[in-house]
Q: What sequence folds into this?
């Protein structure tokens, strides 16, 4: 539980992810910390290459942590785990990948793709129960039982993403890491997939880490937003708090890029380009809580200025 008596389902603490190739090193994630509360949707937002997917993949244990720790329900899940604990984490934290075509086995039927986790974790008593679970999952995502005998290449992008979602929910997870699950889809299909995600959250009490770069979509689905730039957290706030009081200049630049439906206004709008600040020796920028659950990255001088803007 945190100070406001909310249950913390997942906690990322001082996470670093470093990729090495020979003598070369690249720090993709730099000292990232945030909590995800049970039943909420927390979104990671930032431009391409900012480290959002790397964080998501570290949580599901695809990318190893170079420093820091990740806790799930109060237990550390980064680093080495016992076989039993590893299996429990794999089942309870599922991931929906960005590319629905690349994340599905083209040689397997939809029935096998959805059943694979059930086979691996022995989550059924007999064939009848397995088929009941698979058919319920396929129905829940808006597809039909007759689709189970088909192969991924026979489906559209939106249908393939629904299969990926069915593959996740059939495992009865507590947390789903959704890595830009709608960026490869048509606009009309995006709304359907987002509504599905919200429906499952209501019905199953699911918690989401939603990774995206489109702030207009993030506003629709998120409870809180974490803004990431070059592997660092720039700002954390509740959704409407962030849209009402965007404080960090990088957040301003993301907001200025949101498309306006009116073509005349869209032509007139000015894009704000973020230029990173070089901090001097005496300045020690840090992620600071300025109140109202709003955290911003900056030096002591910048934090005072942000407070004055927020609470004027």
A:
């Amino acid at each position: 539980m945190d100070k406001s008596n909310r249950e913390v389902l997942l906690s990322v603490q001082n996470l670093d992810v470093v990729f090495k190739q020979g003598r070369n090193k690249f720090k993709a994630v730099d000292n990232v910390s945030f909590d995800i509360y049970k039943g909420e949707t927390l979104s990671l937002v930032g431009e391409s290459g900012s480290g959002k997917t790397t964080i998501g993949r570290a949580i599901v244990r695809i990318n190893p942590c170079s420093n820091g720790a990740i806790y799930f329900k109060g237990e550390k899940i980064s680093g080495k785990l016992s076989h039993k604990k590893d299996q429990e984490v794999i089942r309870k934290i599922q991931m929906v990948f960005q590319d629905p075509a690349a994340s599905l086995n083209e040689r397997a039927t939809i029935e096998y793709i959805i059943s694979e986790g059930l086979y691996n974790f022995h989550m059924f008593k007999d064939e009848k129960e397995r088929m009941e679970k698979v058919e319920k999952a396929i129905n829940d995502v808006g597809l039909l039982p007759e689709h189970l005998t088909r192969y991924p290449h026979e489906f559209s992008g939106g249908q393939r993403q629904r299969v990926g979602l069915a593959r996740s929910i059939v495992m009865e997870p507590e947390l789903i890491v959704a890595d830009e699950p709608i960026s490869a889809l048509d606009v009309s299909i995006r709304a359907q997939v987002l509504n599905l995600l919200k429906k499952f959250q209501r019905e199953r009490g699911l918690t989401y880490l939603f990774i995206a770069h489109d702030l207009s979509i993030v506003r629709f689905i998120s409870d809180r937003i974490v803004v990431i730039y070059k592997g660092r957290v720039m700002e954390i706030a509740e959704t409407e708090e962030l849209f009402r009081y965007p404080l960090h200049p990088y957040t301003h630049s993301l907001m200025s890029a949101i498309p306006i439906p009116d073509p005349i206004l869209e032509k007139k709008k000015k894009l704000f380009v973020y230029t990173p600040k070089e901090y001097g020796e005496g300045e020690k920028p840090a992620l600071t809580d300025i109140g109202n659950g709003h955290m911003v990255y900056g030096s002591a001088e910048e934090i005072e200025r942000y407070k004055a803007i927020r609470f004027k």
